[in-house]
Amino acid sequence: MKIAFSTCPNDTFVFYAWVHRLIPGAPPPAVAYADIDITNSLVAGENGPDIAKISFAALPWALPRYALLPCGGALGRGCGPLLLAANKAGSPDHPAGLAGRRVAVPSERSTAYLLFRLWAARHVPGGVGEIVVLPFHAIMPAVRDGLVDAGLVIHEARFTYHTYGLNMLVDLGNWWEADTGLPIPLGAIVAKRDLDLTAIAGWLRASVQYAWRHPAEPMPYIMRHAQEMSPEVAQAHINLYVNRFTEHIGEEGYRAAAALLGRAAQAGLVPEADLSALRQAVNI
Predict the structure, then answer these.
(1) I need a surface site. Which of 87, 121, 137, 182 has the fewest CB within 10 A?
(2) How far apart are CA 169 and CA 201, in angstroms?
(3) CA-wise closest residue to 161 among 177, 140, 145
């Protein structure tokens, strides 16, 4: 079974037990480790992986062939993307100062970028300038070095941006939560519709539960893929992004996903999608 997910600690934590053949009945996975920008594109094509971790913002392109699984994803509160600028003269020091500026983002179909576009439509008169897509680990160095004026960052960057001499212009997660009262739907696990979705969801939830029961066991595997991240930052990353929504998205999670995609479609930022299709009948 072909599975694609990123090297971020929350993904390697979630899939550890499955990858290491610790889940009874689960087929051996052929894993492709890929940045979220790549997986978002893979599921939009005809020959994508059987299972993939993607952005919730990419679901409208994936839903014709893939179903949203109710577990394994990343939703939560206090864990949203940050918009950063360099702490030096000439850098924007206020959201309105982003008008006409170059901004680096991790993917054009990422939840982070979708939240940014929804927010910027209200708070940046005249709109931002050029959007530059970079791998997420390259965004903070690009902002620090003046290659872009601001950067949209995700995941562990919220713990490390100070070390790059950067300052936060806005926490888009806080903005979303204040505006909607809902958690932030960041990453989703999808599987091809012609597969046994109930079985896959069960194996995935069992993998999450195994890692929770044996939290130290996955760490060597996680750290091999953690891109020079310290163990402390990796653990903070897991603590933030692997939560009750990872075990099951729940009613609140479905409402958050529908709110994000509904608002985005109304603004013309994503294709219209059948949001009722998010609630795939998967019994786990």
Answers:
(1) 121
(2) 38
(3) 140
pLDDT tens across 140-174, in order?
Answer: 999 999 999 999 998 777 778 889 999 999 999 99
Helix (H) or strand (E) holding 34: none
Q: Tell me the CB-side half-sphere exposure of residue 245, using CA atoms within 13 A.
A: 26
Nearest-10 Cα torsion for 29, 34, 38, 44 = 10
Question: Tokens representing 138?
Answer: 């390259």
User: Does pLDDT of 281 surpass 60?
Assistant: no
Give the closest residue to 53 by CA, choosing from 111, 134, 122: 111
User: Catalytic: which of 94, 155, 162, 225?
Assistant: 155
Active site residue 155: yes
Instruction: Give the pLDDT band of residue 137 (cuts 50, 70, 90).
Output: confident
Which of 193, 215, 174, 12 has its CA nearest to residue 82? 174
What average pLDDT score do residues 242-248 get?
95
Q: What is the pLDDT of residues 190-214, one digit of tens each?
A: 999 999 999 999 999 999 999 999 9
Tally of CB atoms within 10 A around 7: 16
Q: 122-153 b/e with 16+ CB inside 10 Å = b?
A: eebeeebeeeeebebbebbebbbeeebbbbbb
